[in-house]
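Hi R.,

Here's the chain you asked about this morning:
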Amino acid sequence: MKTLFKTFFEKIISRLRFVKSLRFRIFLIIIVVGYVPTLIMRYGILQNYENRAVSLRTAEVETQAKILANHLAVNNYLQNTNSDTINAELLQLSTLYDGRVLVMDQNFVAVKDTYGISEGKTIISEEVIKCFKGKSSSNYDSNNHYIEITTPITLTTEVGGEVSVGQVAETENQTIGVMLISVSTDNINTNIQVLDEKAQTLQLLMMLLVIGLSWVASRVLMKPFDKVTSAIGEVRDGFESEISDVPDYEETEHIIVAFNEVLKRMKILDESRQEFVSNVSHELKTPLTSMKVLADSLNAQDNVPIELYQEFMLDIADEIDRESKIINDLLSLVKMDKTSADLNVEAVDINKMIESILKRLKPIADQKDIDLIFESVRDVTAEIDEVKLTLAISNLVENGIKYNREHGYVKVRLDADHQFFTIQVEDNGIGIPEESIEHIFERFYRVDKSHSKKIGGTGLGLAITRNAILMHRGAIKVDSEPDNGTTFSVKIPLTYALK
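And the predicted structure, written out as tokens:
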């Protein structure tokens, strides 16, 4: 039972996912775009037919009514309704259009009703009153399916006395009665229903066609994205090293390019990590091996001279310092990686901090006869974590010393404006190749691996520096040319603001 319920639930989830898919949305859009015009066309055709049919029926009845009204006036029908010819014409009009004809005199009294139920009754309405003023009217009641038409019965009389030869007698039209005609539109409505049924059938066929076309179109339009998904799956499973172009759409090309770029960066990062593990393993193992050899040498000898003993112990102490530096770099990087790492922010004299850094590194610089120069444009006090920023600036200055020539220089320049302070660390050393500049802040990356081994270090210094500066909401950039030196520029807000 649980298995059946789980299967049913999984099917529902699968269908809901399909509803959220781009393919379903394309399918739905095409259906809507295909259905709405057919719906509008259907109602437009029916409405146009109804208006046209009613207009033609009204014009036809009005023509017949005017002719009949003229006969009524000429034959003085309002005073004598016994004319068989006129009554036959009225009945014929009523029968022909499946309607009713009322003839009213000037007193609004019905003198003739083809239905024979309102004769002698007074009938007053707005349309009848307007008609007595010479304004005929027509009104279509779509709910009750009839057309109501009012036509004046007018008598033309001459105005004035005798008329001499050559003169035209003046005439006057006098409304002596009104014809009120009600015409049924049942046959028009029947035709509309037949047309509507045919339109619905045609609309259903068109909808089936649209659904089929939209399904095919959605599959065709999504095919390039399916290729991308399949290619990404092959890369994930290890069949391909990268995705070849899927040129169907410009968008898929952009996706492929972006994915390949990410894949390339991941490979570089993975290679760097593997190399880092190898290098760090070697770096951590080498001091231990040296200490083991030195200790074994001392243990293997009897009565070791004090001078030799002291020399070996100094070598062991150097190896311990080297091991400690590697471990400290790793711990610093791990600590700065933690999102919960807090800064111990306080107001610090940046001038004194840099002077302290240069004083501490001066013995190292003196070994290569490198001048350490400090240029301060103004006194600067900023809110920083002194320990972390000292580590960052120390790494930059120490790199300037390590990757320099003998008798070179490392110049540190401090300046500030109302919002930021800047520190530039410039040297005239060996520089950085152009292709390596974008990678130097990556963890585990080394520009010249063979040269870096001789100089020492783990390839973590600049990564630690960049992390420390970013934690201060700052930025760092580098300008360098091979054999022309390197300049690191650091920009940090004077006031630390919590996010």
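The mean pLDDT is 80.

Let me know if you need anything else.
M.
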